[in-house]
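Item description
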Amino acid sequence: MDAITACVVGGVSMTGGVGKPWGVVIGCLLITVIANGLDIMGVSSHWQKIVKGVIIVVGCADRRKGKEQETLNGIERQGRSPSPLDIHQIHKHFKEEKRT
């Protein structure tokens, strides 16, 4: 679980294909610091796993929101504003992607 959490924190996509090795190294360092801090504070191992799980969920949700925004920014770079239909289709696409 530490490896997955470190990858998510480091910016690696859970669907694969995107990420940098230095991001994973930084993610490992951050997760190690968090784990050591929780140990020093006397937090039980069960709560530590919950904290790491929350980090994974938040990281994945943040990436998903970032992809939607990136798609909207791509439309704006084409020299036009996204129409309500564009926004609806983007949200629909990401909802369908979420189900699979």
